[in-house]
Amino acid sequence: MTIAPDKSATAETPVPEGHVRLTIDGEEVIAPKGELLIRTAERLGTVIPRFCDHPLLDPAGACRQCLVEVEMNGRPMPKPQASCTMTVADGMVVKTQLTSPVADKAQQGVMELLLINHPLDCPICDKGGECPLQNQAMAHGRADSRFRDRKRTFPKPLPISTQVLLDRERCVLCQRCTRFSDQIAGDPFIDLLERGAHQQIGTAETADVFDLASRTSSGKPFHSYFSGNTIQICPVGALTSAQYRFRSRPFDLVSSPNVCEHCASGCAGRTDYRRGRVMRRLAGDDPEVNEEWLCDKGRFAFRYAQAADRLRRPLVRDRETGRLEEAPWTEALRVAAEGLAKARDGKGAAVLTGGRLTVEDAYAYSKFARIALRTNDIDFRARAHSPEELDFLASRVVGTNPDNGVTYAELENAPLVLCVAFEPEEESPIVFLRLRKAARNKGTKVVHVGQWSTPAVRKTFGELLACVPGGEAAAIEGIAEHATDLDEQLQQDGAVVLVGERAAEVPGLFSALHRLSSRTGARLAWVPRRAGERGALHAGALPTLLPGGRAVTDADARAEVERTWGVEAGALPTEPGRDTAGIVAAAASGELDALLVGGVDPDDLPDPALARKALAAGCFVVSLELRPSAVTEYADVVLPIAPVDEKSGSYLNWEGRRREFSVTLEGTGALPDCRVLDTLGVEMDADLFTQTPEAAWDDLSRLPTRPQRNGAPDVPHAQPPAPGSGQAVLATWRQLLDDGSLQVEEPHLAGTARRVVARLSKATAEGLGDRVTVSTGRGSVTLPVEVADLPDGVVWLPGNSEGSKVRASLGAGHGAVVSIAAGGER
Amino acid sequence: MNTDPLTPVLTKRWLSPQSWRISTYEKLEGYTAFRKALAGTPEQLVQLIKDAGLRGRGGAGFPAGVKWSFMPQNEEKPHYLVINADEGEPGTCKDIPLMMADPHSLIEGCIIAAYAMRSHHCFIYVRGEALHCIRRLNAAVREAYDAGYLGRNIIGSGFDLDITVHAGAGAYICGEETALLDSLEGRRGQPRLKPPFPAAAGLYAAPTTVNNVETIASVPFIVNGGADWFRQMGTEKSPGPKIYSISGHVERPGQYEAPLGTTLRELLELCGGMKDGIPLKFWTPGGSSTPLFTAEHLDVPLDFEGAAEAGSMLGTTAVQVFNETVSVPWAVMKWTQFYEHESCGKCTPCREGTYWLAQVLERMVEGRGTEEDIDTLLDVCDNILGRSFCALGDGAVSPITSGIKYFRDEFLALCQDARERNATVPELVGAQQ
């Protein structure tokens, strides 16, 4: 039996600096100054009911559900106080519903009022079973209602976007969604309309239902990459997603923690599944990374793994018919092993892994290349890349982690963040949210080196340092001379420079950033777009690096790896391998006999036409894939692998933070890449010890990080290209929601993508009309024109959107000179 | 001692021909006070207003000098003076007549108050429906600019002040000072969370003081007359004259400026007594948000303390007088419909509560109420009073609780009528009556 102490233990405890002592329900408690009463009570174990309160939103005090009695300096306050807006104070005496009949009645009263206009449709409501209103009404409400009159009704549901639907009858007007849109996302998304009992949530478009006259002046079209969060934080079933509504009940779902596979933000999430099928994804709660938010891609784009054409069985190309036929694993592995072994012993085999692998899978590819194929011809960079980037990654990025590198927390506390060739909202949405939070709450100055004032520039309260595509390096080099205030700010403690994947397309940019960082002391972090790139870098899926950042040219490092891997001394290849472009060129010209390709889309590569040529050139192609692709079209053997929900593993996010996840859907029979490669290795007499992701991680862990910090990139910056008449310099990057292969089967999500337009300056757009055709010798893209504040002579195109596949159509990238002409009428 | 019950101060120019013209104003001592004020220091002015004991005329009666002293001494951020001219309380009609008849007294008050609070921009937020008044104010502001009383270096004093007249868009809630500030900034008019209070972060997050029209219009008189003169009128704690706006069943409704502490009995004498001699039934001392009074309260001194002691509030001294022909439940229903219509929707108790109360009262007045409804009304009122975000909710329940307190029988009678009518309907289907 536990005996309670006679006196509260805190009575004698001195109050630490910055804290206060108060009493809640007769219990003394010490709380940090500024803490809201509702949180202090929660730490004591007393949950005060609430709707509008959310720890990550500014206090509102709107729902009045959390009323408590408060006494200050021995004097009771005349009215009950909202505990979600009142901060703790020394000597305060608080009585919650547990000890105060006044507070209890106030809460019961508010609950009754909230329910008078709430429909009794819990049995068909998505939120039923996980509904804060339902739960709190049971705990703090009356058993029956005294309301006998007419409920307020609205037509329902109201589509706010193709994805988000609003049921205004269920809404309790807590304003979490509107405050989220305003404070966190910064999007013109939804707002309050009307007043009194007719007050409702709506958009610029829905407002027109009431005032058709305002249609002509209606607000901006709905755009938010974060709209799904409003659904998750809605304390009732007022906001639902087209994807999930009416699909299942919460109590039928099994929840499993996950890590998002879509970008390098590394978001913690939750996957809910039922009978072997993922029904929805929600944001997890990870204060150090994504807090409680998730972008819409992370939330809604998961049905690619449920696509009807998912590869479930190995395929082997029939020599006679030339068609891929299903084959048993044993046969497929044998054919693959034979082909690869033959190639290895011939002109060689190379590995292209793509940037979406887990660390464990990337490690298996890396090890497979070295000991099964005996080559350094491996590269994860299924995108534009450069040798300069390789030097940068080896000297500045590999091995950084939250203990020694830039973190989300540092972004939040930085006086200045300089984003270079990096579009945070499109490429790493949670980094964007953190930049906005820093700018909004702590006055962080965010400067973007780019081409136009993108929504992210505006929403981070940022400043644009505009330059011509390809001129970024020159712009960085010019900071010391031409932007002395910025230069001074970069020298402040905690200043951060973020650089994105596009930097690889700008010669000299990584070198310029390295010099800038060395000179000013600003910390430099690389934010790749894809989830697997940091992990693949760590795993050594690069032509110059072994696992842990060891250089392939370093004999000691090679020897260490050989010992750890238990291969004979001198077994590892000594020369740097070919990079992605080199591998593609070699395959296309017949200098390679085989390619092992894991999840690469040729259209992502710098030269898609050459990549297809390489695949078709007759070398032996083994493809590890989820669904049929341009690579499987040419493959001799196709080995199906597991999507993230069906395997375990980890990603390294942009911070180098390991984001581990376990299997969500057990027993589907799908195998992770590392397992497939391990077995393939056995067929080739090479032991990878990567039978499971756990084994692969253990094996990799035996090679602690040992990055070479010398060999920093040193490439002079090129002169920005000068377009001639009828030409422009191409600026391009990918939008978050586009035609990416992991976004298939999601029409509701696709409907919320940004409009696909070409952007030009007013002067450059002159005479082009409504549409512009951008062309190269390869092909052309024609899009509607939108005028923006780009430098003259520049055209911006979305990288991989409907009607704008820049690589595939133009064979060009950021910084290329293209022709522009009037695009004619639609 | 002055035996005349009327003390025309603010209203003394109202009957002059073209009283709203700057020429008339200047003939009648106008624009003399601000010259004295600008010759003094801001601190002296704040002290003068404190000494005079001027209390806010918008309803709450907060000491104006104290409020002014909350403004920071430094000018790190611009200071703003905002005049609350969003007069919307049912029954209240003092500020609009004042601005119609004597707009320059407000403008002169603004100059003095702005100087005292180191503000160089003053906004007058006028109720949007009062279009004529907005035009007249704008004209007066133009006259003042032309005379050199507004703008840069006012009469060579080195003090700059701009006045902007802003029209509201027709929302009662915008009379609440923080909702007014949001509305003035171009946002939805909904009350803000306090703290921060306007003196710390008001308009555009800068130090701001919001004062009522009548308060600021009193300032030039205090500057000219002095604190002692001001204190000759009214009571110790509620000094000064006050415009009582008498409406309803009286012979001569209108504005009567009398010392604070005047009783309804005295006011009725001034306005010729009850109309057609029909006896008084109930009245509001200061607009519909102040609990009702009855004939029992004829001798309650109408100052901040007297009204409160008698269980109501002085409010805006909008005295609405109702005779015996008026049904209390009906009047209460009409008021409640007003609050339901004007509730801003931000907080649950006010938004949902007024919606519910209005329906119950409408049902009652239609003769479909029950005795339980009376208890429900009172309990819902209890769940709104002191639970809502701002004072709108508190005001909304005043007519109901005070109406039931003094006239429960009338409510009961409505319900009993309903019961009797319903009782004649046979309960058994098909049974003969």
Automatic annotation (TrEMBL), chain A:
What does the note under cofactor report?
Binds 1 [2Fe-2S] cluster per subunit.
Catalysed reactions, semicolon-separated: a quinone + NADH + 5 H(+)(in) = a quinol + NAD(+) + 4 H(+)(out)
Q: Which GO terms describe its biological process?
A: ATP synthesis coupled electron transport
Q: What class of enzyme is it?
A: translocase
Q: What SMART domains does the annotation carry? A: Molybdop_Fe4S4, NADH-G_4Fe-4S_3
**Keyword terms, alphabetized:** 2Fe-2S, 4Fe-4S, Iron, Iron-sulfur, Metal-binding, NAD, Quinone, Translocase
According to the entry, every stretch annotated as the 2Fe-2S ferredoxin-type domain falls at: 18-100
GO terms for MF: 2 iron, 2 sulfur cluster binding; 4 iron, 4 sulfur cluster binding; metal ion binding; NADH dehydrogenase (ubiquinone) activity; NADH dehydrogenase activity; quinone binding
Give me the ranges of the annotated region Disordered: 695-726
Superkingdom, natural source: Bacteria
* EC number annotated for this UniProt entry: 7.1.1.-
* All copies of domain 4Fe-4S Mo/W bis-MGD-type, residue ranges: 253-309
Locate the 4Fe-4S His(Cys)3-ligated-type domain: which residues?
A: 102-141
Cellular component per GO, a single term: membrane
Q: Which cofactor does it need?
A: [2Fe-2S] cluster; [4Fe-4S] cluster
Job of this protein: NDH-1 shuttles electrons from NADH, via FMN and iron-sulfur (Fe-S) centers, to quinones in the respiratory chain. Couples the redox reaction to proton translocation (for every two electrons transferred, four hydrogen ions are translocated across the cytoplasmic membrane), and thus conserves the redox energy in a proton gradient.
The text of the family note is: Belongs to the complex I 75 kDa subunit family.
NCBIfam families to which the protein is assigned, alphabetical: NuoG, PRK07860.1
Q: What is this protein called?
A: NADH-quinone oxidoreductase
Taxonomic lineage is:
Bacteria, Bacillati, Actinomycetota, Actinomycetes, Pseudonocardiales
UniProtKB/TrEMBL annotation, chain B:
Q: Any idea which UniProt keywords this protein has? A: 4Fe-4S, Flavoprotein, FMN, Iron, Iron-sulfur, Metal-binding, NAD, Quinone, Translocase
Metal-binding as UniProt keyword: yes
Q: What is its EC number?
A: 7.1.1.-
**Do you know which SUPFAM superfamilies this protein is assigned to?**
Nqo1 FMN-binding domain-like, Nqo1 middle domain-like, Nqo1C-terminal domain-like
Q: Does the UniProt entry include the keyword Translocase?
A: yes
What are the names of the required cofactors?
FMN; [4Fe-4S] cluster
- Catalysed reactions, semicolon-separated: a quinone + NADH + 5 H(+)(in) = a quinol + NAD(+) + 4 H(+)(out)
Q: Where is the NADH-ubiquinone oxidoreductase 51kDa subunit iron-sulphur binding domain?
A: 329-374
GO terms of biological process kind? cellular respiration
Report the GO molecular function annotations.
4 iron, 4 sulfur cluster binding; FMN binding; metal ion binding; NAD binding; NADH dehydrogenase (ubiquinone) activity; NADH dehydrogenase activity; quinone binding
Q: Which leading EC class covers this enzyme?
A: translocase
Q: Which family does it belong to?
A: Belongs to the complex I 51 kDa subunit family.
Q: Function, please?
A: NDH-1 shuttles electrons from NADH, via FMN and iron-sulfur (Fe-S) centers, to quinones in the respiratory chain.
Note the NCBIfam families from the entry: nuoF_fam, PRK13596.1
Q: What is this protein called?
A: NADH-quinone oxidoreductase subunit F
